[in-house]
Amino acid sequence: MAVGLGPLSTLHPVPGFELGIASAGIKRPGRKDVVVMRCAEGSSVAGVFTLNAFCAAPVILAKKRASGSVRYLLTNTGNANAGTGEPGLQNAMRTCASLADLAGVDESEVLPFSTGVIGEPLPVEKIEGALQAALDNLSENNWADAATGIMTTDTLPKGASRQFTHEGVTVTVTGISKGAGMIKPNMATMLGYIATDAKVAQGVLQDLLRDAANKSFNRITIDGDTSTNDCCMLIATGQAALPEITQASGALFAALKQAVFEVCMEVAQAIVRDGEGATKFVTVQVNGGATHQECLDVGYAVAHSPLIKTALFASDPNWGRILAAVGRAGVAQLDVSKIDVFLGDVCIASKGCRAATYTEEQGAAVMAEEEITIRIELGRGTCSETIWTTDLSHEYVKINAEYRT
Q1: Angle at 398 between CA 393 and CA 403, to 5 degrees
Q2: Residues 75, 148, 153, 189: which is the catalytic one?
Q3: Which of 103, 110, 153, 228 has its CA 20 to 30 Å from the CA of residue 184?
Q4: 169-228: per-residue pLDDT in tens?
Q5: Which element (helix H / strand E) includes 149?
Q6: Is position 189 annotated as part of the catalytic site?
Q7: CA distance 133 to 125
Q8: CA 351 to chain CA mean position, Å
């Protein structure tokens, strides 16, 4: 069940970026599971990818090609094409070549993306059989259908859109994502596609995406598992009648940065809200760290603790589990006498022990809510970091136990 996640809001078309959806029947006959995206000629493309050493064949190929001329992005669901060795790489190249042949472009201008079961051969013939239908379906208005087409265990499609005006010209930023499990930063078992009609130099675009991902996609976690297939792409088609952004400064860049950050944050948090079996959306906020890294270390120790996550599912304010996680986060010379911990606005622990004003009734009231904030004040410095996560439910175990059946 998705927490606080409803139907898609309006996803504005991005001039110069088209999406087409078709059915290859990879896991289920009739399911629309192939998405082709076409970028206007001259578009700039940036990407961030998983750091998993067993990265999937399409990740290897997409990373190699992303800095060059890119015209098409090809996504399939139902099969990750990961753990497939050299044959998997050849299969990824073959699907790209087939699309390039149909579209009349060089195969180096096609980037592949896959998501689904790891370790199984990519059903190349099924994907090839769906490519022409996807090309025939290309439209700037197909964002919502594409958001559904890239889903795996997701229960709802995920997307966001922003528009702003600069010197009388409207600029659009629209994005979609997928992901619900095997979610942990760097990146997560997720795919994200964001497009804008602004004209942006490739280097500036790459830095913008990296910064945006670090504050959104790289701050979410569901189960601590970093996937083999994570990719997030940012495409700038250059169709808006505005000068090219060649440096990270000025009013136009600032407005674009805000819009990209907002879209990334919304679709990243939607992944958490739709976490497999999730019943709670949890914000872990760590303040007062000496460094940003120690804030992240504390935040992830809390967010990844199965004891804390199961307590969240049970709506049990077992604050001792939070203290234990903070204490084992590996922060050097941590003075527990300076640490305060809050559930929502309720102080549950102060100076390393139970707060004098705290009652179990207060904690239980906060834990009964669908959206919960755990705030930890370290009292060591001025750095802060925020992470978003979920509880751990019976349904999560069921979904993952039955994933291949």
Answers
A1: 130
A2: 189
A3: 110
A4: 999 999 999 975 554 444 445 899 999 999 999 999 999 999 999 999 889 887 655 677
A5: helix 143-149
A6: yes
A7: 14
A8: 36
